[in-house]
Design brief:
It holds the Pfam family FA_desaturase. This protein is an all-alpha fold. It is built from 16 helices and no strands.
Length: about 325
């Protein structure tokens, strides 16, 4: 840690990020084709997503492999959505921009729509680390009870229902219906399928529904169970990993500047979770300093920039804060 002021440290980090990006763009002219790169990455991840589902349908790969590969493909679509929220692709071409927004939502149906999430995320950058940060609080940030935290991380709908009353009191302008309706119809269908399968098999433990149910119901459940493997369970893994990582690395309370909004998660403990959220724990802090930057550039510059951030006071693997419901403690070393 240097003896510079917080403002000077922040400026140094921002300068290093922008300088390293400029160097890479000069070295690799291909990076100037940002719209094309974003679209290619989207189409490749979508093709992989559909491809592994097809392989599972024809029994070429087992369910567990389909789930893992689909979760990784979906994690790429999250990074693309993050970029789209900051208008990194086709910002002057509404049709292509909204096509990409819709596609990444369909690949990640357990989230609110990306147009609504844009409002939450841009607000997150303004109020990160405070009780007004709805985006992070929705995924468990600031919750001390470990059981409640796990529940919120794994099931966003239950988390919203449980915390709605508290959010209404603490977060300005919060509306349960606004957040809930922001998932219609894609997220609504997702949870309808998920809970239908859970209820069906839960009841089947005590009552033989598979023997007594009409054929049409069994046919519907067969479709739902296929969707569980190729779409729903992969996104449970993806979103749970992302929610665990992001809610662990963002601070809640005690935050006074950008240096104190996040810490970097490089610990091996988080390696399996970073796998399903495209190395989010390593790179997201870079995004807080320079938001308008494609995700693949953050990956490319991260090795050098993490050293710069460490030198200028950004913390790494601050597990003490997680134990204290993400509180930033100034005397923590």
């Amino acid at each position: 840690m240097t003896t510079l002021s917080a403002k000077e440290n922040i400026q140094a980090i921002v300068k290093a990020i922008k300088s390293e990006e400029a160097r890479l763009r000069q070295k690799h002219p291909l990076l100037t084709h940002q719209n094309t790169l974003g679209l290619i990455i989207l189409l490749l991840s979508l093709s992989a997503f559909i491809g592994v589902g097809t392989l599972y349908y024809f029994a070429i790969i087992p369910a567990w492999l389909c789930i893992i590969l689909a979760a990784i493909a979906a994690s790429i679509s999250h990074e693309l959505e993050h970029d789209l929220i900051h208008k990194q692709y086709f910002s002057n071409q509404p049709f292509m921009h909204n096509f990409m927004m819709l596609t990444v939502w369909l690949m990640r149906p357990n989230t609110v729509n990306p147009w609504y999430r844009r409002k939450m995320h841009l607000h997150h950058h303004k109020v990160s680390g405070t009780e007004q940060d709805l985006e992070e609080r929705l995924v468990g940030n600031g919750i001390k009870n470990p059981f409640l935290r796990v529940l919120v991380i794994v099931d966003g709908l239950l988390g919203l229902l449980i915390n709605a009353k508290r959010f209404s009191k603490e977060i300005k302008g919060f509306s349960f219906l606004n957040v809930f309706n922001a998932g219609f119809p894609v997220t609504t269908v997702y949870f309808a399928i998920l809970y239908s399968v859970i209820v069906f098999h839960g009841v089947n433990v005590f009552m033989p529904l598979e023997q007594s149910s009409p054929v049409w119901l069994l046919d519907i459940m067969a479709v739902f169970e296929f969707l569980m493997v190729v779409l729903i369970v992969p996104n449970i893994i993806r979103s749970s990993s992302l929610n665990f990582v992001t809610s662990s690395m963002h601070y809640y309370g005690g935050v006074n500047n950008m240096l104190e909004q996040t810490h970097v998660l490089t610990s091996r403990v988080f390696m399996p979770f970073n796998l399903f959220c495209f190395n989010f724990g390593h790179t997201h802090t870079i995004h807080h300093f320079v938001p308008n930057q494609p995700f693949y550039l953050r990956q490319m510059i991260s090795k050098k920039i993490l050293e710069v951030m460490k030198h200028h006071g950004v913390r790494f693997n601050d597990f003490a804060s997680i134990k204290q419901a993400n509180l930033y403690q100034a005397n923590n070393t």
